[in-house]
Design brief:
Number of helices of chain B: 5
Distance between the termini of chain B: 62 Å
Strand content of chain A: 35-45%
CATH superfamily of chain B: NAD(P)-binding Rossmann-like Domain
Number of domains of chain B: 1
Number of strands of chain A: 10
CATH architecture of chain B: 3-Layer(aba) Sandwich
Radius of gyration of chain A: 15 Å
Shape of chain B: globular
Oligomer: heterodimer
Helix content of chain B: 10-25%
Largest interface: A-B, 28 and 31 residues
Helix content of chain A: 10-25%
Order of helices and strands of chain B: HEHEHEEHEEHEE
Strand content of chain B: 15-25%
Strand order of the largest sheet of chain B: 3-2-1-4-5-6-7-8
Number of helices of chain A: 4
Largest sheet of chain B: 8 strands, mixed
C-alpha cells in the first residue's frame, strides 16, 4: 500500500513562509495543510493538497517544555474543516535544518493524538502529519480505512519538483 | 553512484535516486512515445504507467523506435515493456493496452509526471484536465505536416509544459478557447509522422523532465512552450509566449478544484 501527499510548490512556499516566522514565545509554529483524498483498488491513496490554514499568534500557549503548544481553537478549526468538507487534514510543522527531518519523540507524543478526531469526523479521507525541513519533507498518514499510520511520500510540484 | 549513470553525474549527487523514484506516465507509444520510453529507460526511470490501445502495423515501423518487423501485430505496449525491462529487469511498469480514458484511475494519478504523445485536440484537453485535477505536470508533444500549395510541406511541432498553477494549453493558445476539435493531422499524406522529428520533440521533452526533477541547469524560468520548425531544424520559444503576461494565472483550472471528481445527484 502506498500513500502520497502532493502539493504545489507555491503552497509549500506559503507554508514555509508562515512556519519559519519567529513567534514571541513559541519556538516552533504549526499549521494545517488540507487536501482531497483519492483512494482506489490498486492500494494507493493520494492526497492532493489545496490550502494551508495557519495558526494565529495568540492561539499558541507559552510552554517552554515543548516547541509549540496551542489552544483548543487550533484543533477545533481543523475538525471543523473535516466536518464542512470531508477532506484530508495534515498537521504540519518545521524543523530548522537541511536534509531529511525526523519526527521527534515530542512530536509523536503531542501530534499523533490530533489525528484520531479528524479520522472520526472525515473517515473517507486520509489524515496525518507533515514535517518540513529547509529542503526536504516527511509525512505519516492514516489512509482510510487503515488504523495504523504508514509512511507517506511527499511530492512538491513545481520547478523544480521535490520528490521526498 | 551506479556506474551505469556515471556519465550523467553532473545532474547532481541525488539525481540517480530522484530519477529512479519518479513515476512517469506515458500516454501514446507511437512515434513520440517510443522515443520517450527509450530515453526514460536509459535515463534510469524505473516506475512507469504506459497506455496505448493499438497494435503495431507495418506503417508504424518508419518511426516506432525499438520495434522490428517481427513486432507487427503485437501491442505497442509490448515493445515499450521490452525496451524498459531490457535496461531495468525489475522495473515497475503498469501496462494498460487500452485507451487511457477507459481506465485512468487509479494508475495515472499516481504518476509524478505525465508525457502526452496523443493525437488531436480533444484527447489533449482530456489528459490535461486529469493532470490538473491531480496537480501532475504534463509535458505535451506533437507534430504535424501541412501543405500549402504551391510551397513545400511545412513540418512543425510543439513541446509544452503544462505545470499545475501555471498556464495551461488553452492559456498558451495551443488549444482554442472554444474547444473546437481540430483534425489530428494535417493534409500532407495519411497521418504524417517521421522519426527524426518525433525524436527531437521527445528528446526535448525528456530534457524538460530531467530539469524538473534534478534542477541541474538552474534555469527555473526556462520556457515552457517551445516550437519546432522541421523545415528550419530549429526549436525555439514559441512566439505566443511573448504575448503572455508574466506570472499569468490560469483561469481554466482554478487551484481549489483539485482531487478526484465528485458526482452529485442533481435530480431531487
Amino acid at each position: 500500500m502506498t500513500t502520497r501527499l502532493r502539493l504545489l510548490r507555491s503552497l509549500h512556499q506559503r507554508m514555509m513562509a508562515d512556519l519559519v516566522r519567529a513567534h514571541p514565545y513559541a519556538r516552533e509554529r504549526v499549521g494545517w495543510v488540507v487536501g482531497r483524498t483519492a483512494t482506489g483498488p490498486a492500494d494507493n491513496t493520494l492526497v492532493v493538497a489545496y490550502d494551508y490554514l495557519d495558526v494565529p499568534d495568540d492561539e499558541y500557549i507559552d510552554d517552554p517544555r515543548v516547541g509549540a503548544r496551542f489552544n483548543r481553537n487550533v484543533i477545533r478549526r481543523a475538525m471543523q474543516h473535516c466536518v464542512d468538507t470531508g477532506d484530508s487534514v495534515f498537521c504540519v510543522h518545521f524543523h530548522d535544518h537541511s536534509g531529511r527531518p525526523v519526527f521527534s519523540r515530542t512530536d509523536h507524543r503531542g501530534l499523533w493524538p490530533l489525528v484520531p478526531p479528524l479520522r472520526t469526523l472525515a473517515p473517507q479521507a486520509a489524515h496525518g502529519l507533515l514535517l518540513l525541513s529547509l529542503d526536504e519533507a516527511v509525512a505519516i498518514a492514516w489512509p482510510p480505512p487503515s488504523k495504523e499510520p504508514m509512511a507517506c511520500s511527499v511530492r512538491v510540484v513545481g520547478r523544480p519538483m521535490g520528490l521526498f | 553512484m551506479n556506474s551505469l549513470y556515471s556519465r550523467q553525474s553532473f545532474l547532481g549527487p541525488d539525481s540517480e535516486a530522484m530519477i529512479a523514484d519518479c513515476r512517469l506516465g506515458i500516454i501514446g507509444l507511437g512515434g513520440g512515445g517510443s522515443h520517450i520510453v527509450q530515453q526514460a529507460a536509459h535515463l534510469g526511470i524505473k516506475h512507469y504507467v504506459i497506455y496505448d490501445p493499438q497494435d503495431i502495423e507495418d506503417t508504424n515501423l518508419n518511426r516506432l523506435v525499438g520495434a522490428t518487423l517481427a513486432d507487427v501485430g503485437a501491442p505497442k505496449t509490448s515493445v515499450a515493456e521490452r525496451v524498459i525491462f531490457g535496461l531495468h529487469p525489475s522495473a515497475d511498469i503498469v501496462t494498460r493496452t487500452m485507451r487511457w480514458q477507459d481506465d485512468p484511475e487509479p494508475y495515472l494519478r499516481a504518476c509524478d509526471i505525465i508525457i502526452g504523445c496523443v493525437d488531436g485536440t480533444q484527447e489533449r484537453l482530456e489528459l490535461e484536465a486529469l493532470a490538473r485535477r491531480y496537480i501532475i505536470p504534463l509535458i505535451d508533444i506533437g507534430m504535424d505536416v501541412h501543405v500549402i500549395q504551391p510551397e513545400s510541406p511545412r513540418m512543425a511541432g510543439q513541446i509544452i509544459l503544462s505545470m499545475p498553477g501555471g498556464p495551461c494549453l488553452k492559456c498558451f493558445g495551443a488549444i482554442p478557447e472554444d474547444n473546437v476539435v481540430q483534425n489530428a493531422y494535417g493534409e500532407a499524406g495519411g497521418r504524417p509522422q517521421v522519426v527524426w522529428a518525433n525524436g527531437i520533440l521527445a528528446s526535448t521533452a525528456i530534457g524538460m523532465l530531467v530539469d524538473l526533477i534534478t534542477n541541474w541547469s538552474q534555469t527555473l524560468s526556462s520556457l515552457p512552450y517551445l516550437q519546432y520548425d522541421g523545415n528550419a531544424h530549429t526549436v525555439l520559444p514559441h512566439v505566443r509566449l511573448s504575448h503572455m503576461p508574466p506570472n499569468s494565472v490560469c483561469p481554466h483550472f482554478p487551484l481549489g478544484k483539485v482531487g478526484p471528481p465528485i458526482f452529485r445527484n442533481i435530480v431531487q
